[in-house]
Specification:
Layout lengths: L20 H23 L9 H8 L4 H18 L11 H11 L2 H13 L5 E7 L5 E7 L10 E7 L6 H4 L3 H12 L2 H14 L1
Antiparallel strand pairs: 1-2, 1-3
Helix pairs in contact: 1-3, 2-3, 5-7
The chain binds manganese (III) ion.
């Protein structure tokens, strides 16, 4: 079964003005689509053909860089679209809010730590809110196509800080893009759902 580009979980214009339709046309319709096409072409006739995305990411890491990059980018982007929602952002509610309070000392401290990871990241990469094996939350910064699977942590929410994620709209203002994510885009319902799944498996 070939991998397919997942549709956005909202209309392409629904995140505007915080993330414009043009940004999504390129980021989802071209960048993410290319990772999916490359992945399907690269795995053909290899030991990875027919494997799950998770198995390909773990199996190709350190073995086949091109397959790893495209598989991990397909996973990260699919997760990223769900980390956004129209009318999102603001202070989280529910279990994730209590866990953030417990593990970071409060939302303000968490937000500061995440923004630090996202804005000081040199070059292309990702910022993730994750749950560690013991159930504690942490912030991880990942280079290029790297992904929390490699740390054996579980992603709860992520932000793409590759230039292609913001340059059409925010130009060089990565900090502006990251703050907009927290103010207007972050999907805390998705993070709460992921956190509940992790807690159920502990
Ligand atoms: Mn991207």
């Amino acid at each position: 079964m070939a991998f397919t580009l997942p549709p956005l979980p909202y209309g392409i214009g629904d995140l505007a003005p915080h993330m414009t339709e043009e940004t999504l046309q390129f980021h989802h319709g071209k960048h993410h689509a290319t990772y999916v096409n490359n992945l399907n072409n690269l795995v053909k006739g290899t030991q990875f053909e027919g494997k799950s995305l998770e198995d390909i990411i773990v199996g190709a890491h350190g073995v086949n860089q091109a397959i790893f990059n495209n598989a991990a980018q397909h996973f990260n982007h699919s997760f990223f679209w769900k980390s956004l929602k129209p009318g999102g952002g603001g202070v989280p509610q529910g279990a994730i809010a209590r866990a953030i309070e417990r593990d970071f000392g409060g939302y303000t401290q968490f937000r500061q730590k995440f923004i630090q990871a996202a804005t000081t990241h040199f070059g292309s990469g990702w910022a993730f809110l994750v749950s560690k094996a013991d159930g504690k939350l942490d912030v991880e910064s990942h280079h290029d196509a790297s992904t929390p699977f490699l740390n054996k942590t579980t992603p709860l929410l992520c932000l793409d800080v590759w230039e292609h994620a913001y340059y059409i709209q925010y130009r060089n203002n990565r900090a502006g893009f990251v703050n907009t994510f927290f103010d207007s885009l972050a999907n805390w319902d998705f993070a709460n759902q992921n956190y509940a799944d992790v807690q159920a498996k502990l």
